Amino acid sequence: MAELRGAGGVAYRKVEAGYFEKRGFRRYAGVWSLWALGVGAVISGHYSGWNLGLSTGGWGGMLAAAGIIMVMYLGLVFSIAEMAPALPHTGAAYSFARSAMGPWGGFITGLCENVEYVLTPAVIVFFIGSYLGAIFDTPASFQPVWWALMYAIFLALNIVGVELSFRVTLVVTLAALAILIIFWVSAIPHIDFSRWALNIAPDGSELPEGNGPYFPFGIYGVFATLPFAVWLFLAIEQLPLAAEESIDPKRDMPRGIILGIVTLIISATMIVFLNPSVIGVGSFALGQSGEPLLDGFRAIYGDSAAKVLAFVAVIGLIASFHTIIYAKGRQIYSLSRAGYFPTVLSVTHGGYKTPHVAMISGALLALAVMLIVWFSLGSEQGSAIIGGTLLNMAVFGAMFSYILQAISFIMLRRNLPNIERPFRSPLGIPGAVLTIVIGLVTVFFQLSDPTYRVGVIAVACWFVLGILYFALFARHRMILSPEEEFAMEHQKKG
Questions:
Q1: Angle formed by the axes of helices 143-160 and 306-337, to 10°?
Q2: What predicted TM-score, i.e. pTM, was given to this entire model?
Q3: Among 19, 200, 360, 372, which residue has the fewest nearby CB atoms (within 10 Å)?
Q4: Signal peptide: which range, if any (predicted)?
């Protein structure tokens, strides 16, 4: 490959023979594997995380915020369902932005998504540690051991092979949904909505008799709750990262992502209504809980079954943890293969053909961030503060990734109108515009929350360091990966 100069001051360098052979994948995933990958990545958000929004918006604020975020995700996933089969590369968000906005746009979008996929499993494993601590009665200081143990187990499962990874994903996703369904059926005879779901006063205190306002913190509470409502859907957009492992991405990718978002909308509606309404639980307590689904099970079945129920609830968290480790590996791999990140990160395992270096590196980075947050805030802080800080850091990266993907969709519609599009978004450009607007509003209210602002600013600093790395080094040593070749070819045609 001859050296080439690209747009934005990018230079493409020669690579040794066999470069891409060392970075190959196997095709395995069908439509139901993709559905499981998308739903499994999100489903832990229906177990823990979303509930923290009850303390900022009350039940009505949480429901309204979930509705606004649902609109944002519909605009996003329909846009992605159009772009993914048209650009069926592992790069996903980076690939879309690279074709629409050039190498700088591709890198910045990929960097934002990288923050999301490094930190999201960190949030999930934090909540897994909370559940396991309740099961085995371990002290708070033992939490980092649970995090390291979970990473070790599920990194191994993801490295051993794509076939095993997708089988595990399907099994744990179905199990996680089954547990939620059991909870819904169990909860319905044990709810008192007015008494328990509406038990937050306008001053934030608990109302002993319930029957409080739907929106105890007014319209501001709705917008302040948006980052937590994101947790009900965050990571469904990871599906295109499996494009080069999908048997037929042009047919199956749109089907998988649309089936996934429909499943999640149904599940999110049920959990937001039922969990706070269970007698003995309530919105006030759930707003500060690290294990809300377990709280609901305890109230229904009693403390005697708590440990068994906690173990059952961990399955939902494991489903997302396992699938987002998969996504993180592919996301880092794609940016590394093209030279945006150090190329050593894209080497795949010689026997299993999985991006083991990328997955291990991402896990080590996530653990480092978790330990920094853990020790800087102090382990005596409640799970609502530590988990909420990590959650807001992940959401901040995700929002910018969504905004840039929506912009990419609009630009691809305008600049490359004639590329093959096996699926076209029924929401079109208006859906993408809604995604941008809601994403910007969510970021604004993240920055307005002093509790989590420091973590969000830390992510912004990470963006600055990444951009400096690209500007000073990586852009001079790029490689013509499939994403880069596609973009340059169609740029010439345009």
A1: 60
A2: 0.90
A3: 372
A4: none
